Amino acid sequence: MSLTGALSSAISALNAQSQSLAMISDNIANSQTVGYKTTSASFSQLVTASSGASTYSSGGVTVLARSNITTQGLLTTTTSSTDIGISGNGFFPVTTAVAGGTTLYTRSGSFTLDNSGYLVNASGAYLLGWRTDADGNVVGGASADTLVPIDTSVAATSGSATTTTTVAANLPADAELNDTFTTSMSLYDSLGTANSMQITWTKTAENSWTATFANPTLASDTSTTTGTVSGSIAITFNSDGSLASTNPSPATIGVTGWTNGAADSVITMDLGTAGGTDGLTQYSSGATTPAVDLTGIESDGMAYGKLSSIAIGDDGAVSATYSNGKTITIYKVPVATFAAADQLEAKDNGMYAATLASGTAVVQLSGTNGAGSIEGGVLEASTSDTNTEFSNMISAQQAYSAASQVISAVNEMFDTLISAMR
User: Fold this and answer.
1) Inter-helix orientation angle 386-421/2-29, to 10°
2) Which has the least CB within 10 A, 67, 110, 271, 391?
3) Which residues is 307 bridged to in the sheet?
4) Are residues 167 and 296 in the same domain?
């Protein structure tokens, strides 16, 4: 009967508006929650039977919760070096445990270092990333299988041996035969100890020189010998002053017997390109007393240093800075994308789980193949707008009140009907 249908329709309206108000309440409560995505009420008509011109069969309303997960929130600058946000599509992958945990996804990029050196969020989930070499290149391939919890303790200290020394200098063409000149170079052993070594340049013939090397000494105390050097380099120049060749080629020297137990060193001496003037040259000095004009001498390697700070920069590069002033990249944070991100299952603390409807995650480097770009030093603000939510709340309240009035009217009409039957 029509009164029963009206009552049923009004009750469905009360239920729908109650659920809508619950969504609005959550949105308002999380207006300041980092990475929060609003939930919207989507109302749909219910039909119980066919209606005609002379009869109407009421159905009512149902409500569905629509998650606005892909809506971009405003990126705001923070003072934490480990805060990150995504501009565009995607999520940060996290895991609930270092080993054997569940992989979840989040837009909330507020991460801090725990006591063990892992980057974690407020709920203790571990940020996943790819291990990199010092140049920031991903080791082992950028795939979901190579993701690991970001553990900064793997790079708690730094220090590496010198493998290449680059020299740019002019050896004076107007030097006398057997004239010698000395310069010094710095080098590090495999334990990061700083050393120095003298190079003696001797003119052996026209356009010909020899470089010999003294045993290395501590940079802090040149009276303390730290190893034994082997090898010398014969150098020839073209008549135009450019480098002709070196012997051996490439020019290398070795250091053995480091007194601190460091591994033996093999150092390539980069003296320039044959036929070029980008390294060693031989031109007249024009001076009364000729001398070597050293433009630059630089060795790679790194002194020992302790980890002093961690920062996540643009493109998801996790950088470690050490007490020796060196900064190296140790991990890369990926961006996980989904075919239907709005179908992810919401979890506590702004995290989501993949579902059959969302599809599986595809992990990408920041800003590649449709993935959003990671920005360092920012957080994504909540997408909840309190003005909009208050407006929606008023509409829900009015609809709820109107539906309750319908129930009151139906109740009175039932009373009238029952009274007429007595």
Assistant:
1) 160
2) 391
3) 322
4) yes
Reduced to 3 states (helix: H, G, I; strand: E, B; else coil), residue 208 is strand
CB 117 within 8 A of CB 125: no
- Residue 92 and residue 351: Cα distance in Å, rounded? 9
Q: Specify the number of domains making up the chain.
A: 3
Q: What is the 3-state secondary structure (H, E, C) of 70-122?
A: CCCCCEEECCCCCEEEEECCCEEEEECCCCCCCEEEECCCECEECCCCEEECC
Same domain, 259 and 271: yes
Strand ranges inside 338-412, DSSP E: 345-346, 351-353, 362-364, 373-376, 378-380
Domain of 197 in residue numbering reads as 162-300
The whole-number mean pLDDT for each consecutive block of 10 residues of the chain, a chain of 422 residues, reads: 79 90 93 90 80 69 88 94 96 95 95 95 95 88 94 86 96 96 95 94 97 96 96 97 96 96 96 96 94 95 88 94 88 96 92 95 94 96 92 92 89 83 71
pTM: 0.70
Pull the structure tokens for residue 270.
């980069």
Nearest Cα neighbor of 21 from 45, 44, 43, 46 is 43
